[in-house]
Amino acid sequence: MFGKSADNGKPFLDNLHLHLAKNIIERFSGTAFEEISVYREHQGILEYSRAYNKLCEATDMFRRRYGADFPSLEEIAADSDVVFVSTDEFVDFPRPTLPHIVHIGGLGVGDSSKNGGLDEIFSEQMEKGSKGVVYFSLGTLVNTSSLPAFAMKAVVEAARRTPDYHFILVVDSNDK
To answer: What class of enzyme is it (predicted)?
Structure first.
């Protein structure tokens, strides 16, 4: 029970939220020295218990089907060399990850031509570059107007030097 848990691969005690080591978000948000409430401790224990019970139920189901010697799902997860995760690493919120995690988001997305294709305005943009399209966006966390002038000039210069590609530069409304 104190091995790795299947819900997130952390050791059991880490799931109780009783440990002193904080994650990177908690460190930067200034909560590293805050006390964890009794409610939060109980919530962590409850979350772990639910996940562990589901894991045990799933292991029992596999053992009924494939025999009593089938390894527990906890053992399988701990021994996995590669973990496929149904997220898109380019769209998902950035966070530290492990090298054996492979993002496979978008596998269920069908051919866009079968779904009616792109709107006309987007189709026109995608046809402009003879070698392709480069979509440049810093996301919602960084405003391009807050960048030093030389940084945006470098991006524009890179676009100018590669005329075979059509660049779509996403800038905020305050950028000139």
So the answer is: transferase
Q: For residue 112, is it within any domain?
A: no
Total structural domains in the chain? 2
- CA–CA gap between residue 173 and residue 147 (Å, rounded): 13
Tell me the whole-structure pTM to 2 decimals.
0.39
Cα dihedral across residues 56, 58, 64, 68: positive or negative: negative
HSE at residue 73, side-chain half, CA atoms within 13 A, is 18
As given in the structure block, the two tokens for residue 21 are 């080591």
Radius of gyration of the chain (CA): 24
- What is the secondary structure of 37-88 as a DSSP string? PHHHHHHHHHHHHHHHHHHHHHHHHHHHHH-TTSPPHHHHHHT-S-EEESS-
What is the model's pLDDT at position 68?
94
For the ranges 31-45, 90-104, 142-156, the one whose mean pLDDT is highest: 142-156
The burial of 84, by beta-carbon neighbours within 10 Å (0-12 exposed, 13-18 middle, 19 or more buried), is given as exposed
Is residue 107 in a domain? no
112-137 average pLDDT score: 81
125 and 67 co-located in one domain:
no
- Residue 140 lies in domain: 120-169
Q: Give 44-69 pLDDT, tens digit per residue.
A: 888 888 988 999 999 999 999 999 99
